[in-house]
Structures are given as structure tokens and as C-alpha cells.
Amino acid sequence: MYSHPNFLWLYALITTLISPTLALPSLPTTNPSSTSTVFQFTRNGTWLENLAVRPNGNLLATRLDAPELWLIDPANTNTAEAGSLFYTFPNATSLLGITEIDTDAYAVVAGNFSISTVPAPLVHT
Keywords for this entry (predicted)? Predict the structure, then answer.
């Protein structure tokens, strides 16, 4: 870069004038995305903790209240049949997270966690 004072002044002026145009906010969308239920558990008390999206669009969902990994097919229009138990982890009480470590290969955090043993939040006055 040149060290000539006029060049530096010109560079500073141009970047100052261009900067606001680069930071313009985008307009909110006028067509909000629609939402729909793709799968719903039949029993109450189910707590999904984390999701991973497979390359084919299916979802892998970990449960916090049970050591179960569920496979959910969002393309299935029958919400009662869209989800199925994929794997149950032995010697664990819950699953906490999932991440893709290679193409369609996942690492899952399994452990012994109970919601009933979590202390109540402190109230500060």
C-alpha cells in the first residue's frame, strides 16, 4: 500500500463513504414461513434435547428423559408414523447432544441425568 498522504486520505474517505452502504439492514420478509408438526410423541413428558439433520433430510433427535435416539422423517405426512425409535443406549438414562463427525456419522453424548435431581434455580432479591 502506498504511504503517500494524499493516497491515505483518499482511501480513508472512500472507505468511510462506502461503509454505511455495506451495513444497510435487510427488510423483513413479508411472507413468513409456515410451520407444521412433523411428529408428535403419544406419551406426555417427552423431552427432546438436540437435533441433527441427516444428508437425506431426516432428523436424528436425542431425548433427555430417556436414552433414546429417534429418527424423524419430515417428508412423511402421517405425523403418527413420521418418527421411530432408532437406538436405545444401554447403561444410560438420557442423551444430551448429537453432532455429525463425518458424512452421516454422528457422536452422541449419553449419560446418567435426571431432571428430578437438578436443583431448583436460586432466587435473588
Answer: Signal
